[in-house]
Each structure stands twice: as structure tokens, then as C-alpha cells.
Amino acid sequence: MVGKSNTGKSTFFKATTLAEVEIANYPFVTIKPNHGMGFVKVACVSKEFKVECKPRLGYCIDNYRFVPVELIDVAGLVPGAHEGKGMGNQFLNDLNQADALIHVIDVSGGTNEKGEPVSAGGYDPANDIKFLEVELDHWYHDILKKGWDRLARQIQQEHSLVQKVLAKQLSGMGVDEELMKAALKATELKEKAVIKWVDGDLFRLASFLRKKTKPMIIAANKIDVAGAEDNYDRLVKEFPDEIIVGCSSESELALKEAHKHGMIKYIPGEKSFEMSDESKISEKQKKGLEFLKTNVLAKGGTGVQDVLNKAVFELLEHIAVYPVANSKLTDKDGNVLPDCFLVPKGTNALEFAYKVHTDIGDNFVKAINLKTKQPVAKDAPLSNNDVIEIMTSK
User: Fold this and answer.
1) What is the value of pTM for the model shown?
2) Which end of the chain is more exposed for a tag (fewer CB within 10 A), N or C?
3) By mean pLDDT, which of 3-7, 151-155, 319-323 is the weakest?
4) CATH says 318-392 is which class?
5) What angle do CA 42, 46, 50 make, to 5 degrees?
6) With the CA atoms of 111, 117, 123 and 125 taken in that order, what torsion angle do they form, in degrees rounded to the nearest 10?
7) Domain 138-213 top-level CATH class
């Protein structure tokens, strides 16, 4: 999770994880990255098979399966971060381990370029989308430039494959030879001698690689503030290639806390909630909850769960697959549907077996789709919400 200070990033993090983090209305509250578990929401196959599942990780409620994903909340970035401004490069480097980025912006326009609070509408949030992309591109560019003259000479003198040398240079950023080959083709650098590349060529290459290895979704936070919806509509038109989701992390956090304390029954991502024991709820709390029901949930929900789901299933193009050891839908210990794996779309049966466990992949014999009762070829891609029985030789 990235973005400027004071956009509600830490509130978003707490709303998704219920982790204890410091939240305040001033820049650079978050210094060291916070780690926590959020959950993506899928329709659990337990309903289809008429069984009660027992998740090993995550949880299931009303036939919705919540599958854990690790979230990292890094310190706020400001324009010029790659040059050391604000908290500088150390927090850009915290992003290395991320598969995707959730860019939290204040869509109400109530936070200026320095992360300082201003009156709602006093700042154009479009600037935040532009500045972060520039910062990340410069970050990749700076990494690519390190030792560039030496690398260029090495490639020229040894007649090395460009993609092989550069992929090794950027392997820590998730770049492999296939991706580098595609990048060279897309930027038309494949046909140009390396020794003739100029800085602009390196920047175009860095930008392409950044978009592929650190795809980004935009969480348009504070959507419940007056004037924010107009800004949201404008941003969607101005940035048609971006996934932009309106959300209110403050509302989600309030609902999660109310659920945690037994005031309401609230399922993340739903458009309403049920009151629990009203005798435990003060009139002030009741009014606050009714306000959220009428002014946030009834208008489409808090959007926080949508951000996580779209990040995993649309941006990263993953699917949910359930591995089981037998037709009774259990593991070897008898637990029903204990695991739900999030894997890239296109993952085949053998690759999935290896993701479950190396020994299962090594001893793979065959797989059966328990929805269709048909065998699955080891090189056949799996589909979302498949339940796969994996048979092994041991």
C-alpha cells in the first residue's frame, strides 16, 4: 500500500487487517512498514457441495470464503522521493517484495502534495496519480542506471544476450528473461545496439518493466466526503487505463470494530449489516451506525473489500482453487475444504500440485475436478473455484 502521507493509508490498512497501527492527521505517521493480513472474498464451494468447511487459514462466513493475503503499509511518499525528498528511497525499496501496489489517494482533494490537510476540494487528486507513477518509474530507472556503462560494455564485448544480462541486473525486481525480451520488443530497443542507448531509452525500458512487475490499483479513499464523487467520476474518465475504486476506509474500520465488539453482524463487502444486541449500543452509536447504513452502504458499500478483490482477481489475474486429498473434500486429517489457494490464471494441474507442496508435485499421478467428476490433464489450465483432488504415488 503506497501513496502520499495523510490520505488515509494507515486507516485503510487497519480497516483491512484490524492491526494496531498509529493513525493521525499529519505527514509521516508511518515510518517503518506495517505488515498484516487482509482477506479476499470468494463464494465458498461449501454451499455447492452442501458441506461445512473448516479453513486452515482465513475463515468462512455465510458461504463466503475469506482467503488471507499479506499487506504492507509503507511510509508516505512525496514528489521527489527518488531524489531523497520526504522519507526518500528507503521506502521505495520497501516495495521490492510486493506483487501489486494499492495506491491510496484522498479523492476528496483534502490533502496537498506534501501530505498536509487542506479544505476538501483544495487539491486535485489527479496530481497524485501522475506523481506516483513518475516516482516509481524514476526508482526503476535509477536501479537500471547503476553500473550501466559497465553492463553495456560487457554486453558489447562478450556478445552477451541483452535480455539475459539485464534480467540478472533486475532480478530482485521480479524481472526474468522472458519479460525483458518482451520489454525490449515493446520499447523497440531490440533493434538498437546497446552501446547507442541513451538515458531516455533506459527510462522507457524502466517504465515498461515497472508497470509489468508492480501493477497498481487506485483506492480513491474518502469517497464519502462532499465533492469526492465528482472528483472520482473525473478521474475515471481522465485515467481510463487505471483500475480506480472509490472507498471509505474510515467507514469500513468503524463497521469492522462494531462487528468485533458484537454490536452488529457485518460481512465485509456487503451493502448492509444486522444489529446484534441493541441493549449494548448507545443512542450515539446507533445513530452513527444508521448513518453508515444509509449514507455509505446503501450507496454501494465502503469499497475497501472491492479494492482487495480487484487487486488480486483483476489486476494480478489470479483465481481461487481448492486442493483436496479425496472425493470427500478433505485433507489427510479429515478437515473439509481446509485450503483455498490463490494462483495465477492459466496455472495447470501439475503446477498447482507443486504450489500445494513440492512432494505432491514430485509424486503427482493425476488430478480430478470434483465438480465435473472428470480427470484433469496435468497441463490443463484450472478455472476459478475449481475443487481439485490430487492423487499421488505416495
Assistant:
1) 0.89
2) C
3) 151-155
4) alpha beta
5) 150
6) 10
7) mainly alpha
